Amino acid sequence: MTAKTGAAARGKTRTLAELVGRAVDPVCRKRGFASVDLLKAWPDVVGARYAERVRPDRLIWPRTGERFDASGTVVSEPATLLVHTDGATALMLTHELPQVIERINTFYGWAAVGRIKIVQKAAPPRPKSRPKPLRNLTLAEEARIRDTVSGVENDRLRSALEKLGQQVVARGAAARTHQK
């Protein structure tokens, strides 16, 4: 019989995030990131406008020796964050760099990033998301939708409204069941 070691011996389980984080941290360190935290929080840090279009690549730390301020405290030079994005987004991002740097430094809790260098590359392809299949409507629901749009005289408009009503009812019921 073998003895249990580590977390299993203490009866503790680990979350997948802990295990993956520990496996990915060495890779992040090679790219200049102390941990995977900024990469995971990137959409929250830069906002929805840039979350999918701008990708952080690496932090480049200056190769200067330690400097001290007047009180003798070590002063570290801020890093340069290298990001990849397409040309149009690069132009928009350039105008908002001070705010983005401020958000990144707020995330870290200190002036970790002093500059952002933008490298224009083609944006990575967005993963294709498939819409969730809708549930089948009951006969009563279909009849209620038909009755609701029956006063519309234009056939194409009535058909479009009926289809929209079916999707709204099917999604609405699905959303309510998932919220519980």
- Terminal Cα span: 45 Å
The total beta strand count reads: 5
Strand order of the largest sheet: 1-4-5
Rg on CA atoms, Å: 26 Å
| Share of residues in strands | 5-15%
Overall pLDDT confidence: 78
The structural domain count equals 2
Sheet having the most strands:
3 strands, mixed
* Percent of residues in helices: 40-55%
Which spans have pLDDT < 50 for at least 5 consecutive residues? 27-32
Return the structural class: alpha+beta
Query: Could you state the order of secondary-structure elements as H and E?
Result: HHHHEEEEHHEHH
* Global morphology: elongated
Helix segment count? 8
Description:
The protein has 180 residues and is α+β, with helices and mostly antiparallel strands. It folds into two domains: 14-120; 139-179. It is 51% helix and 14% strand. The strands form two sheets. A three-stranded mixed sheet has the order 1-4-5. Strands 2-3 form a two-stranded antiparallel ribbon. α7 (139-149) crosses α8 (155-179). The protein is elongated. Residues 27-32 have low confidence and may be disordered.
Core attributes:
single chain, about 180 residues, alpha+beta, 2 domains, three-stranded mixed sheet, two-stranded antiparallel sheet
